Amino acid sequence: MTDDEPVGIRAAGGVAWRPGARGVEVCLVHRPRYGDWSLPKGKLEPGEHPLLAAVREIAEESDVRAVPQVRLPTVRYRSEGRPKRVDYWSMRAVGEGGFQPGTEVDDIRWLPVDDAVRLVSYPHDAEVLRAFADLPEVTAVVALVRHAHAGRRGTWSGPDTGRPLDGTGRKQADALAPLVALVRPVRLLSASARRCVQTLDPAAALLDLPIEVVGDFDEPKPGQQPDECALAAAARLAELAGAGEPVAVCSQGKVLPGALERLAGRPGDWTTPKGGGWLLAFSADTLLAADRL
């Protein structure tokens, strides 16, 4: 299949990993219907975000609760005569509920990566596992989002910092909340604009966390240079990642591209639509990967 071939079946899964006696171990599942060993994955539900599906499928097939870190290679092949696309992420296992064999998956194994590569039944699973093995150590993840839709600046009569989300923006914020929750953040941080704080409100309610207002994520004030704001935001993101705990941050459209370019150390398309965002993976305070949400 090529990238321009129409997508028929959408699925998602991941390489769930945990520390083991011989180093990192990854989870494989055995499917009696096919008699194969594979990475846990499954089809997206209607309207479901692939990352939500990946975490859900890992939990359903292996009873492992996992936190996404880095996007891995996307696999494309044909299934039952239709094109199929499977998106994968590396996932740090944070809990196991006690696997019970079922009709879909009747066994799981935790293995060192080399052993898992030899056991999997399909070359594309081996390719995903090798890509996982090549990753540097991920020490922190950050969910970075831009505020949701808040109408037009010109139609708001008050101070721009007080402009609230509109109906579309509230729906976008509701949709972002479960994605933000996937990283299991211990802190929620927001630029001071009302629309930024409101974008994190549904996530705050879902996670039972307060929202901390941080001026380093604000857009430039009159007389302030955009580069100054981008540098401040990048520095604060690196500091948060260096602490080694997952966090979620909401900032603004004039800040995010410059901050991400500085963190990545390269130019690129860092534009972020309103209500969109990024899954950022760090090793200490160094950005390893940025995956669009």
TrEMBL record:
Q: Has the keyword Hydrolase been applied to this entry?
A: yes
Task: Note the Gene3D superfamilies from the entry.
Answer: Nucleoside Triphosphate Pyrophosphohydrolase, Phosphoglycerate mutase-like
Name the domain of life: Bacteria
The record, for PANTHER family, names: BIS(5'-NUCLEOSYL)-TETRAPHOSPHATASE [ASYMMETRICAL], DIADENOSINE 5,5-P1,P4-TETRAPHOSPHATE PYROPHOSPHOHYDROLASE MUTT
Which Pfam family, any one, appears in the UniProt record? His_Phos_1
Single annotated GO MF: bis(5'-nucleosyl)-tetraphosphatase (asymmetrical) activity
Its name, as the record gives it, is NUDIX hydrolase
Organism per entry: Micromonospora sp. CCTCC AA 2012012
Its Gene Ontology biological processes?
A: AMP biosynthetic process; ATP biosynthetic process
Nudix hydrolase domain ranges (all copies):
7-133
Please provide the record's keywords in A-Z order.
Hydrolase
**InterPro entries recorded:** His_Pase_superF_clade-1, His_PPase_superfam, NUDIX_hydrolase-like_dom_sf, NUDIX_hydrolase_CS, NUDIX_hydrolase_dom, Nudix_hydrolase_domain
